[in-house]
């Protein structure tokens, strides 16, 4: 009998935010696979899972290089797929753990596509997790959208929409915009928000639910060179003020 693949979201940082379903699967799975890179000692997803459930003795990292080289990435995804398929064929259940939710900007998506494209018919179950999007808004008691309002979730890498002229178009068409991983384009985003006179409608959240969490309602207090990779900005055009919690 073949094993089953689980894609498990462990949330944005606080182990108390793992769902009951996630904890149950982490206890029962034969293999726990976190994504890792050659430059990373231990993935944050694994650190979170360890605090919630005893998973010692069954951890097998899958290496995904931090690169923009499409061929290297495809090779890594294929290798990871083969690694997981080997365990599934032997009858072991495999849980791939990921920050936030498995189907929102997650490495799990590529592993899922690898398994779906192979000839074997493996059973797969995706277990949702708390996202940074909803987590950050919750810690601020800040509604994301109401009624007919529209929400945009935007990646903010160097070449992403948030770091280009597209941001103005997005802001024009959506009431709330959540910019994810803003470290590479923070300075440009801050200038654009100032130009659109939206500085007082934006809040910066870094490492939500983790050690070193920082929430700042005045973007001028945030220096570009101190912005962590796991940092977001929520822009809410319909809120006249944002709740200050631990503003720095």
UniProtKB/TrEMBL annotation:
The keyword Disulfide bond does not apply. Keywords: Cobalamin biosynthesis, Methyltransferase, S-adenosyl-L-methionine, Transferase. It holds the Pfam family TP_methylase. Residues 4-220 form the Tetrapyrrole methylase domain. SUPFAM superfamilies: Tetrapyrrole methylase. GO terms for molecular function: precorrin-2 C20-methyltransferase activity. CDD domains: Precorrin_2_C20_MT. The keyword S-adenosyl-L-methionine applies. Pathway: Cofactor biosynthesis; adenosylcobalamin biosynthesis. One of its GO terms (biological process) is methylation. Belongs to the precorrin methyltransferase family. This is Precorrin-2/cobalt-factor-2 C20-methyltransferase.
